[in-house]
Every structure is written in structure tokens, then in C-alpha cells.
Amino acid sequence: MIFMARKVTQQDVADLACVSRGLVSMALHDSPKIRPETKKRVAEAAAKLGYRPNAAAAMLASSKSGLVGLILPNLSNSFYDSVVSGARTVAKDAGKLVLVADTGAEAATELFSAWKFVDLAVDALILVSPMQTKAQLIELGRKAPLVVVGRPSPDPCVPAVYADPNPIMEQMVGHLYEAGWQHLVYVNYSEDAGELGARDRRDAFRASVKKNKAITYELTMVSRDGIGRLIDTRIEKHESVAFVAHNDMLALSLMSGLTVRGLHVGLDVGLVGYDNIPIAAAPEIDLTSVDQKGFNLGCLALLRALGGRKEQQLVEEGNLIVRSSSRG
């Protein structure tokens, strides 16, 4: 016959520590009303009995789930992984667990995930590069402490953490001009073009390049199977062209297409990415890129959501990392 051990309760701890059950609960929640020596006695009794608090009951009692919902477009981009790492670092110190939802860059899935996290009563909700409207973000912010990462706040009700693309793009355009590139092609994947952060970055590029009358430019969108055609038409039309990719993943695809056509990236054609993912620094890649400091953004976002920072807009300063792919 198998006997199941009885689960240790708060009453058992109270009996061993010679205190009331209510006092045990207060002591284990570190109430300032309980004397340190009593807290110590309760903690020792709990440890001796192997008492583990009921997580569900604790959540109901405190109205805190201990959960953080973090929603991002995909996990294939190392930049998003760095944001998650930053948030998890803060969460660990705060005793929280980060739950990550990958939306596949679909607005409907993003909204569905957000409301699922709201149903779980998360203590914080972080949306990275969100695709939702201003009204949708405001409504979500009414239901959970919400912070947007990767773009300015669409409304004072919604805190945001981001690297301002405007000074970064001015720095990038200035570098490409000095390197001798005369025509700049800003490239988005078609499916990413509607993302609000993508629009901000594209607008910053347009505003920066318009200030330099010596450079011509264009904004274009490309499907994943249309990169070859894009390269062929631009190389044929322009003698000195540099591609500015919306992110490093797209830049790597462009680099592959340029290389198979016998073009030397950095000499025959310029190429710049965005996000500075680890592979960008590999010697065989050596891609000029923008470091948005994703880890810092993740840390700041969760600190803001949990009340550790009060600013409505937290702006991290990005850096252009110049490598051989754009030096001319």
C-alpha cells in the first residue's frame, strides 16, 4: 500500500513556531508589522517542515501573478532575443517570470496574444515593435501596465522605450555620402512595412536623406523571393548605389544576392543593416549596422512597467557601427 505524504500547511508552520496562522502569512510576505525575530522563527519553522506556499492562493491574495507578458514579431532576429534577455534580467531580480509570445509578424496574432496575457493578469505587458493602432494600445494599457519597445509612444497614456532613429539615420546618411555612394535604396520586406516602428525608421531615413541634395534615394519594398530582381534593376540603373536594409536579416539576404552576382560588397556596392546582430561583426560578413542596444531596451521596458522608472518616454542612444560593407 502506498501512503501519500500530507501537504504541509501554514497551520503546521504556525503550530511549530508557536504563532497564529495569520501571523505566518504576514511573516512569509515580509510584512513590516512583524518583528524580525518572529520572521526568523517562522522562516526556520517553514524550512524545517519543507513548507511551500500555494502559488495560486498567493496570487489571489496579493492580486499579483508574478508573470510578465512579452510579445515580439519573431524570435529569428537576434535583436529581439537581446530585448528578451534584458527583460529577463530585470524580471529575475523582481521575482517575475517572463512569458514570450512570437506573433510571426501578424497584427491579429499580436492582439490575440496581448489579450491572452491580460486574461492571465500579468503584472506587466511589453509589446516590441507593435503593429496595433493607437486606440488598441490605449485599451490594452487600461487593462495591464503596458510599455511599447522600439518606437515612440503613440499617446501619453502608453509609455515607450526606444532608440530614436532620427539622429542614427542622419549619421548613416552622412557616412554613406562621405564614402562616395550617390544613390541610396532603402529596403523593407513587404510584410514588415506596415509595422509602426518600420514606418518611423523609414520616415527618419527619408527626412535625413532629403537634407543632402547631392544624394538621390528611393524607398522600396521587396518580397522574400524578389531580392534578386531588386538587385539586378538597381545595379543596372545606378553606377554608385548603396542599399540600406530595414534590419540585419534583410541585409544578409541582400549580401547573399550581391555576392552570387560577383559583386564585392563595400567596393562595388554599399550595404548597411540595422540592429547589429552578432553575426554582423563576423569577419566574413563585416556588415555596417546600427546598434539599438536591445538588452538595455528590454531592461528599461520592464523597469518602467513595474514602476521602477517614471519617464513616459525612455530614449536609448543608438550607435552606427561602421564596417567594410559600406566604406566604399
TrEMBL record:
InterPro entries named among the record's database cross-references: HTH_LacI (IPR000843), LacI/GalR-like_sensor (IPR046335), Lambda_DNA-bd_dom_sf (IPR010982), Peripla_BP_I (IPR028082)
Pfam family, one: LacI
Keyword set includes Translocase: no
Molecular function GO labels: DNA-binding transcription factor activity; transcription cis-regulatory region binding
Alphabetized PROSITE patterns for the sequence: HTH_LACI_2
UniProt keyword list: DNA-binding, Repressor, Transcription, Transcription regulation
HTH lacI-type domain span: 8-62
Keyword Transcription regulation: yes
Protein's UniProt name: HTH lacI-type domain-containing protein
